[in-house]
């Protein structure tokens, strides 16, 4: 009987862990604590911590952050030092100051870091005004990171980067370091392998003529937005069907790849999909019930790998051509090659909006039903 009890408890633990932990990809990460807080009058609070950054990445930065959530579960005050980022490799103390009032419910505070490098944090303090306007200290658990890490997690600190379950960001490692300003250790987060994406730049693509370079950069920008929207979605989320007439998000990503493939053969080879290609791509092109039946049960990377393969071919073929080819008109359609690829670009934009619409309407996954305990154990 004891063995059965142990087995059931073990299964409960494993299933609970599977439900509450996820690994995601991100160019930033954070850690935080939360306290329930409200005040009949407006009061100031301060979050103070020591921070330093060791990095050769010009985009790398760290900060102290605080966020007040209201009783309506809306965000009130928020500051993450984004306008005054920490980038220097010297211990200094930084302060975030905000306000709470009678509509405040919770205060989150902690540290965050972004891009590649080593980011150090130590000696967190929380001060809140009393009735006399004097800042009084409030308890911060494991404030100087003296407690050993447990299974890669920071005792008393939460590592989630959203309202979702606790996640691990695969680009960042968590460790303790002997460099400190208080006690024997500090917290060190190390980001690596994060590629910086050029922002707000169109054209000047190596190996491409001017107008084709413009098109490649716009196509890639929209593809990046699609990938950013879906890359950390769970199997449940990408397979969720909003209603009987909708399409799953995984199917929509597949549809983008299929549409782009059809324009490849149309513009590069002056033909339509052949019978073999139709067998592969028709369900994704047409979606409807065929798409609902075919595109489920795959993780999001399955669809992104297909999308990436198709896009690599697009870029390869576009670079073989020049602006004169872009201006050529297809007989019988009165479309230029440039217009065709403009359509592929706006097609991505159209379905990105659809993906974002569906994503916001996915209900929380129902809690996994655990096996019922035998009557003997219940007693």
Automatic annotation (TrEMBL):
Q: Which domain of life is it from?
A: Bacteria
Q: Which InterPro entries match?
A: DinB/YfiT-like, MST-like
Per the UniProt record, one Pfam family is MST
Coiled-coil spans are 219-276
The entry's keywords: Coiled coil, Signal
* Residues in the signal sequence: 1-18
| Name of the protein described by the UniProt record | DUF664 domain-containing protein
Species of origin reads Flavobacterium collinsii
